[in-house]
Amino acid sequence: MALLEVNNLEVRFGLRSGEVSALRDINFTLERGERLGIVGESGAGKSVLGFSILNLLSRPGYIAGGEILFEGRNLAAMSARELRSIRGNRISMIFQDPMMTLNPVLTIGQQMVECLRAHRKISQQDAKRIALQKLKQVYIPSPEKRFDQYPHELSGGMRQRIVIAIGLLMDPDIIIADEPTTALDVTIQAEIMDLMLELCERNNVALILITHDLGVVSQVTKQAMVMYAGRIIEQGPTREIINDAQHPYTQGLMNALPQMAIPGQRLNQIRGSMPPLQKIPAGCAFNPRCEYVMEVCRSQLPEFTSSGGCRVACHLVAKMKLEEAAAQRVEEAN
Predict the structure, then answer these.
(1) pLDDT tens for residues 224-243?
(2) Which domains does the chain have, with CATH numbers?
(3) What is the DSSP string of 71-91?
(4) Is this model's pTM higher than 0.85 or not?
């Protein structure tokens, strides 16, 4: 049994103009200690997926179908009381902005101790000891001093380390990291990602890394999913996706990396932008932006096609695979 299994997940938002689907047909598994990257532009549905796993969606958003199985138990069907024993305990989430996560009127120590005592029946002294231990694990200098400080007294990188330490407090089985380095400079970003990788490997914690940066995904994760307009359009081993992207959208993301541009020339970019949920095109949602678009792309939703170790939802890839199979049969016949 997989640690986490998501089957046919659908998430909808009720608007005045009617309901829209934010996530459709989401399927994946996560094993203990596995590191999964979820990639895509803003509006692809990455963060909604992260929130859905912990059933943290606020109205008008709700889980309209499918199941999210954690050790065989469906999180989507749990009561609020049952979910409290999972959130922050067995599954932790690290958000984009640490200042939105940390309470500005409580010291770091008060927040960590409160979190521990909410989930475990331990004394104040034991809670402080565990909190200091976690601060040391994330290489916070002078943890005793930081324990008594307020969030505004710390730098952005330090605050993000504190948030990671809080995420590790309960020794979770899964950490969901939603753009954990967005607000940090490049040097600090690298330090934070190295830290998360080290902690996950040391503690055998599964990681779901949500990001728009394929470079980060290539360094940290073993499996990857590329999302577009609420659907998975390519998934498989990270190395295979990075080295031989199959879907035109994934190829566009790869070509948009700064290192792929010719020095002195403009950066490559995918034309157009992500469609709003109310105006997702028929057929393949990427078809208005795709340079390889065919007539079938405008009318039929593509099924997944196996290509190497990956699954790709693309009519062009399916056509190429059929042509390859036909050519091979002719060659074998001759």
Answers:
(1) 999 999 999 999 999 999 99
(2) 4-90+172-259 (3.40.50.300), 100-169 (no CATH)
(3) TTEEGGG--HHHHHTTBTTTE
(4) yes
Helix, strand, or coil here: 228? strand
Q: d(Cα 164, Cα 162) in Å, to the nearest integer?
A: 5
Asked if omega into 281 is within 30° of 0 (cis), the reply is no
**Burial category of 316 from C-beta neighbours within 10 Å (exposed 0-12, middle 13-18, buried 19 and up):** buried
Q: What is the pLDDT of residue 109?
A: 95
pLDDT of residue 194: 85
Residue 165 near residue 112, CB atoms below 8 Å: yes
Closest alpha carbon to 170 in 101, 115, 103: 115
Q: How far apart are CA 7 and CA 203, in angstroms?
A: 27
Are 302 and 318 in contact by the 8 Å Cβ rule? The answer is yes
Confidence (pLDDT) at 186: 76
Looking at residue 198, its pLDDT comes to 87
